[in-house]
Structures are given as C-alpha cells and as structure tokens.
Write a structure and sequence with these properties.
Blueprint: H1 2-23, H2 27-32, E1 37-42, H3 44-49, H4 51-60, E2 63-66, E3 75-77, E4 80-81, H5 84-95, E5 99-107, H6 113-116, H7 122-139, E6 144-151, H8 168-173, H9 177-189, E7 194-199, H10 207-221, E8 228-231, E9 234-236, H11 243-254, E10 258-267, H12 273-291, E11 298-301, H13 328-338, E12 358-360, E13 364-368, E14 378-382, E15 390-394, E16 403-415, E17 419-430, E18 433-445, E19 450-460, E20 466-473, E21 480-489, E22 497-499, E23 510-515, E24 520-522, E25 528-533
Parallel strand pairs: 1-2, 1-11, 2-5, 5-6, 6-7, 7-8, 8-10, 9-10, 10-11
Antiparallel strand pairs: 3-4, 12-15, 13-14, 14-21, 15-20, 16-19, 16-21, 17-18, 17-20, 22-24, 23-25
Helix pairs in contact: 7-9, 12-13
Length: 546
C-alpha cells in the first residue's frame, strides 16, 4: 500500500510539473529553443522598487539592457566613476540568468558637464576616453556580451556623414577617428564581446541608412573590430517590415556584420482595439524577421510595460499594459516564437492570424474565421484596386539556395466575387536586378476554394537582396480568401538505374570484365566492356541489347 502511494504521488508530481511548465512558459523559454534572445530596456527605479516589474523581467526575458545606467552619467571626473547603478544591473542579470547588453559607450548627447566645460586638450580627452571605455568594458565582461560602442553618430540630413556640429567628440578631436578608436579600445578590453554601431532611421535603404552603411563599410575596410549594426526601430504601430529592410540587412550581412533590433517600440496615437491588433501584427513580423535570419540573434524592446516608456504611457508602445497585463502584441510575439514552418512557410494555414505575412502594394490583409479551407481560419485580402495587390511572405534566408533550383508552390484561393486566374509569384531582387517569376497559376472562383499550384526554375547570383512570395490574381481586383500556402524546393526524381550483365558463348571460351565493376549503373554512366579470349579461341563479336 505504501509503495502504491509513493508511485501515485510521483505521477501527480510529474503531471503537475508538466502543467506548470506549459502553463507558465515565458517568452524566454520559447526564444531559448531557437537560440534567440529577447528582452527589454530596464528602468532603474522600478527595477529596485517594484516586485512585479522585477518578476516580469525574470519570468519573460533572457536578456536586458540598461536604459540609461551604462551611459556616461557614471563618469564623475577624470579617471573616476560611480558604478552603483550598473553594478546593480549586472548583479541582477547574473543572479537571474539574463544576458546583459551594454548601451552605450560613446554618444554625443551624453557627455559629462565636467568634461564638456573643462579646459582639456584633445590629447587629454583622448587618454581619458580610452581609460573610461577600457575600464567599463573590462568591469562587466563576464556578463555583457554585446556593446553599443558608438550611438547615433550619423547626421539626420544630407550628405548623411558623421555629425560635425553639436558633437563634442568631433569638435574636440577635429576628426571622426574617435569612432574607430572607441571600437579598438573596447575590443582590447574584451576581445570576446560583440561590438555594435547603433542608430535610428537607418533600417531601410537610402538617406541615413546609406550613411550608416558607408560608415561601417569604411570601418570594416580599415580592419576595425566592429561586429554589427543596431537598428533602434522606434516606429509607429502601423509600420511594416518591408523589402527595403530586408535588402539593407542583406547588404550589411555581406560585409560580414550582424544586425540586431535594439530599441523596438511601436507607438499608437489614440489607441483602440483595431490599432492594438495592427500593433500586434507588426510585433509579430519583427519577431519573424529576427528569428528566421541566421545573422539576427536578438530583439530588444525599449521597455516592456506601458507604465514605463520614454514615449509616455498614452502611446501604449509596448507589450504589457500599465497594469502588467499581456497585450495582443505579447501574444503575437509568443505565437511566432512557437511557430515551425510547414510546407516551407510560416503560418501558411493562417491559424495564428496573419502573422509573418505582409500586405503587397497597398492591399489590406486580415484573418477570417468564417470562410476557410482547413483549420479554423484563412487570410482575407481586401482593398484591391489592381490585380497585383495581394499578400506576401519574405522567404529568402531559409528556403532559396544560391544558384539554380526548381521550387514548387501551392495555395488554395477563393474569390469574394466573380472568377479569374489565381497566381503565386516570386519577386527576386539580386545583383542582376528585379524579377517576377510565376510559380503557379490556376482557375479560381467565388463558390469554393480551388488549388493553385505549380513549379518554376529560379536562378539568382551575387547578393540576394529580396525574395518575397506573394499571392495575387491575373486580371480581377476582387477581394479573395487564401489558405494552406506552401513553398519548397522541388524534390528531384531519383536517377534511373540499369542492370548490365554479360556472358561468354560458349562457356570457358574466355572472360569479360566491366569497368566500373558492379553491374548496376545510374543512367548516363559510361561502362567499358573488355573481352579476353582463352587459349585456342578468337574473339568474334558482341551480341545482345542494352
């Protein structure tokens, strides 16, 4: 009886552990399964004084960054520092298994008054800055694995070079070499740390993004130890990750750099339910963007609760509300972190809203729970005035192989009215330009779902900048439903094999050999037959068929 009770209690304990692990998983648990890091900027006062604030960080995130605590506010005088706040952050991270990101070593907007107003020569400032960077980086090298070394050094206007006005560092040294020095000093202090240049407004193509690209490209060419670029991403709630962001990422990766989203928040003016759902969609797409590319390792938000945000609580830019309730944006991130691709596509059945998908050319996309082919949902594509307006997903990192390959695609479509040809198109942008490749087409109507499937050969060379699968129609601008999308490399048919056998007639009159030996060959293999007559015999001829 006693043995039975022990077994019964053990079973109950195992079941309880299973339930707890599945009911109370945080974002950190799902991110860890992907070797991915997600976390917030952390504010000093609530970290020290609010239990719920601290506990949410511990349970939900596997990385954090100080909002202000590692900036030059800690530099109190020549060769003197106050490490009270950064030490507290570092100890909190160590005790709770969190990675800590360093932000930031050099920024023109935070320069100590004693330094700015002091009568120091350029050589003196250079020596003090070197000592400051090396001291700070060395002190936290056991817990900080990445630093924003230089922050916001590129000007906001043409020609988008290094800031030369209202920039203490440039004005003091008369050169932008301070950027190079900062990276070199940080690397000397911690050779294992990833070093980033961080900026805003540089996520796409053109303008400031080109200025940042030119800066980091120059640093790489000089052999400066820079490992990546941080994109701040202080965006509006309805700003989608698009082609230009993927292209910029690809060109930075081609330099040998990583990219990290470092300060993400999505602000809403006059929030309502619809806007909060759009915000959630874009948080989901940021997560998809980060976790599917091998050179994007983490996604940092500039806070996590609307209670503490530099934008003001009324902008509701983060993933928890002011009472620490999870918002739709939280559940959107969670859904994407838990996703696995099916048929080569993420969320191809639209069971997780329209997360990971983007509207194409001004269309609108939304989930539909009343008309679907399988499961409980489909995507509804509306606001179409042109046939090419549709729904798309960026697919370049984990599906398209360099060179030439054959790819197959399928979806199920239903028009809201009329009939037409449904199409699946692959948009490619590489070194040779832009191309639109039709992967599949088929008849579709408004009475039921029809399959659109096919395959095509795709070739790309040089740098693959953008690859986006999208679904459209041939002629009609009718709204449509789509479900069960798949896209993958077509499997090659196994090569045909042949058996080759030879014999001597009459037996004993000689021998024959095959090269290569074996007797079973793949079509196209060249086989050499060699005959050798025995003593007293002469080879006459071959007979038979292959």
């Amino acid at each position: 009886m006693k043995r039975f009770l022990i077994i019964k209690l053990k079973i109950i304990f195992v079941m309880l552990s299973f339930l707890l692990n599945n009911l109370f998983c945080g974002l950190r648990d799902y991110a860890a399964q992907r070797n991915f890091y997600i976390g917030p900027a952390v504010t000093n006062n609530p970290l020290r004084n609010e239990t719920q604030y601290r506990n949410t960080i511990i349970s939900e995130f596997n990385q954090m960054v100080g909002e202000n605590e590692f900036k030059m506010y800690i530099w109190t005088g020549p060769y003197s520092y106050n490490f009270t706040n950064p030490d507290y952050y570092a100890n909190f991270a160590r005790q709770n298994g969190l990675r800590l990101r360093g932000h930031c070593l050099v920024w023109h907007s935070v320069v100590p008054d004693w330094l700015r107003n002091g009568n120091y020569s350029a050589d003196q400032v250079r020596q003090m800055l070197e000592a400051y960077i090396k001291t700070v980086v060395d002190r936290y090298k056991d817990v900080i694995d990445a630093w924003d070394v230089v922050n916001e050094a590129i000007s906001d206007g043409s020609p988008y070079g290094v800031r030369t006005s209202n920039n203490f560092w440039y004005e003091k040294f008369g050169t932008s070499d301070y950027i190079r020095w900062a990276f070199e000093w940080a690397h000397q202090a911690d050779p294992d740390c990833k070093l980033f240049y961080n900026d805003y407004g540089a996520e796409g193509m053109g303008g400031k993004a080109d200025g940042v690209y030119n800066l980091v490209s120059s640093l790489k060419n000089q052999g400066v130890p820079i490992h990546g670029v941080g994109w701040q991403c202080h965006w509006g709630y309805n700003s989608f990750i698009g082609d230009n962001h993927y292209e910029n990422l690809q060109r930075l990766v081609a330099l040998g750099l990583e990219v990290e989203v470092t300060e993400l928040d999505l602000a809403i003016d006059n929030p309502d339910t619809t806007k909060l759902n759009v915000q959630a969609h874009n948080y989901a797409n940021f997560t998809f963007f980060c976790m599917t590319h091998p050179k994007v390792k983490r996604m940092m938000m500039w806070g996590f609760t609307d209670k503490y945000t530099w934008l003001g609580s009324e902008k509701v830019p983060l993933i928890f509300d002011t009472n620490y309730n999870k918002k739709p944006a939280y559940y959107a991130i969670e859904a994407v972190l838990k996703m696995q691709p099916s048929g080569g596509i993420y969320n191809g059945g639209f069971e997780d809203n329209v997360y990971c998908w983007v509207p194409v050319a001004g269309a609108s996309i939304s989930e539909n729970t009343s008309i679907y082919r399988s499961g409980t949902r489909s995507a509804f594509v509306s606001n179409r005035s042109q046939a090419y307006q549709g729904i798309g997903q960026h697919v370049l990192w984990y599906l398209l192989e360099k060179g030439t390959g054959t790819y197959q695609a399928s979806c199920w479509m239903r028009l809201a009215s009329g009939s037409d040809q449904g199409k699946i198109t692959l948009y490619i942008r590489d070194d040779s330009g832009n191309r639109y490749i039709t992967l599949a087409s088929g008849n579709v109507n408004n009475s039921n779902f029809s399959q659109v499937s096919g395959q095509a050969t795709v070739t790309w060379s040089g740098l693959l900048r953008v690859a986006r699968l999208y679904i459209e129609t041939q002629n009609s601008n009718a709204n449509f439903y789509v479900d069960d999308v798949s896209f993958s490399k077509a499997e090659s048919a196994p090569p045909q094999q042949y058996t080759l056998s030879v014999s001597i007639n009459p037996q004993g009159a000689g021998s024959v050999s095959l090269n290569p030996a074996g007797g079973v060959y793949v079509a196209g293999t060249t086989v050499t037959l060699t005959a050798q007559a025995a003593s007293g015999w002469v080879f006459s001829s071959w007979s038979g068929a292959i």
